[in-house]
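Q: What would this complex look like in 3D?
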Amino acid sequence: MAPTIAQKRWMYRHMLISRRFEEAIERIYFEGKTPAFNMANGPIPGEMHLSNGQEPCAVGVCAHLDAGDVVTSTHRPHHVAVAKGVDLKRMAAEIFGKAAGLSGGRGGHMHIFDPAVNFSCSGIIAQGMGPAVGAALSRKLQGKPGVAVAFLGEGAVNQGAFHETLNLAALWQLPVVFVVEDNAWGISVSKRQSTAVPRNDVRAAAYGMPGTYVPGNDPLAVFAAAGEAIERARGGAGPTLIEIETYRLAGHFMGDAEGYRPAGEKDALFARDPIPALRRRLIEDGSLDEAEADAIEAAAQATVDEAIAFARAADYPAPETALERVFA
Amino acid sequence: MTEQTGRNERRLTIARAMAEAVAQEMRIDPRVFLMGEDIATLGGVFGNTRGLVEEFGPERVRDTPISETAFIGAAVGAAADGMRPVVELMFVDFFGVCMDAIYNLMAKNIYFSGGGIKVPMVLMTSTGGGYSDAGQHSQCLYATFAHLPGMKVVAPSNAYDAKGLMTAALRDDSPVVYMFHKGLQGMGWLGTEPGATVDVPETSYTLPFGQAAVVREGRDVTIVGLAMGVHNALKAADDLARRGVSAEVIDLRTLVPLDRDTIRRSVAKTGRLIVVDEDYHSFGVSGEIIASVVEHDLRGLKAPPQRVAYPDVPIPFSRPMEQFCLPNPAKIVQAFDRMAQA
Amino acid sequence: MTDIIIPIDLWAEDREAVVTAWLARDGAEVREGDLLAEIMVEKVQHEIRAPATGRLTILRQADDIVRKGDAIGRIG
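A: Here is my prediction, written as structure tokens for the whole assembly.
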């Protein structure tokens, strides 16, 4: 399954929005945190898990989805949220802890909910999988169109929830796709140190579903694999497990010294940065020319600037609103 | 319950009352469906889903694998997507294998979405011991769930309340943990408290959350309980009455929200408070009830409040050991005697 | 007068049962087919329904041990 020119441009644009957004966050995150690093200080307090480098997973999958489809993501959700169409201004405001944020500042960056595009995430490893399966069940029971996609990291495959939800989804033949973003590291523990099999797509066989491995952090290859899986799900043929070889260009969280990485790994990763690589390919295959590529870049930057400006200018929530919205 | 006479006399066990409430709601609301272990063909280990799969079929009454994390997590996702799932955690003691789905997803998604999504789901789960099932199948854990914000928690003591609270739970847009005591289910093999099997209207009705019931009026002491504790309290009140002591008995019915006003009003009248709780003694329901009274007003108290709760030990298997630990009417009367000496 | 008899084919084995609950009160007016009682054989519950319309007299109380063919109540 090959993307149309419009889809290729869409993927490139959303990879750029995600990257520029995270670069802005990375910069702003350290405001107020230097020279003394105190996580609570600055305009963006708290933990920050960046997804720089993992954009191919998000765009390759979400290119096949519309707002009605359901996506659950992880503690590292920004790239997926961007690709799923989450309101960027309100997501930025949420990350800044502002009243205009998606949940009025209650959730922050690990708890992004945008019901308008059926996006949610959980900060606990593998625990977004159950809700994705349930959304898929809901669509099946209601006879409503739509599929669910659960994003997870390669570290999540050793959680009970992974195995329980794969079994349930296969048993009930639900329209759901499980996408493992294998960035090779669970904080400081490598995949090799934590997982008994080198590739997790083989685990699909244990649940009687197809499993696919996508090497090379390649958005077009992700697009192809995800397209098949989502088509299968939409057609009522049940779930699929996809593992994508990807990598994070940042640490696990902001402030991670990344001492666990072998020497030279980061440089090698940046040399394989998927965004300039996609630009070159799209220009080579005639999907874009240089001027169009530059225009997409500029537009992405403008979108991000606008969102960041919105978040900076927004008001903090009245403290006592912390006591609201516990129940529906 | 007031006894009714004449035609249409109809008593239900709590098990039947729960199933009837769910069935009636399923008939009018296609969004309601069930997931759980042994809830379809078997009708629930505790009888509370009997007859449902026969009427509504296996799509809406779904036997699940033994995968609480998967199906409770799935219920959260289905609830956010417009369904109204009912899930059964067979024994509340099993929460250890699936608590993230319960307290990090079910209980927090409304808040973390700023109210943008609803989580209309009911988690029904059995509580209580007294039948030598030991400490992994006999706990109540009321306080564990009531302590964590974002979940409503109900615990009926009789079939009338069970039906009304279930219907209310099914219509609530927030998650409700519906805790039913095994000894009140009318299942026989778990020991049966006859006082829980009462007249129940056939028509659908709701009971509001956060309204405790004064199930017996009295002047001298307030005994507060929930679920099985209410029946122990009523028996103790009978014993006390024979000694000329007039006990008022309050059935909390719901822990979240908690009707503190009814308790405070009663204690203001009687001046004495005993809390009966089959959950553990420390850091629990009994402490919360007493604190709710004393932080409000100390002046009306004639004696220090007392609690009759489960000691802070895992629940033992051996019958004499377990029975020694459980609350019972005699312990409540003894608690009153301690207060009378004060 | 119609006796409420535990059907002899309600369960296969020759085991005793226990009345776990009366779902109607002594003296109540009941209709034929109404659910009246639950009885239990080991952990399995069985339903006893009214064989006639009329006034219920309970003969065997909750917790009583009963056998197939026993009359647990009467309708008259």
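A: To summarize the key features: Strands of chain A lie at 70-73, 119-121, 148-153, 176-182, 185-186, 189-190, 211-214, 240-245. Chain A is about 40% helix and 10% strand.
Q: Very helpful, thank you.
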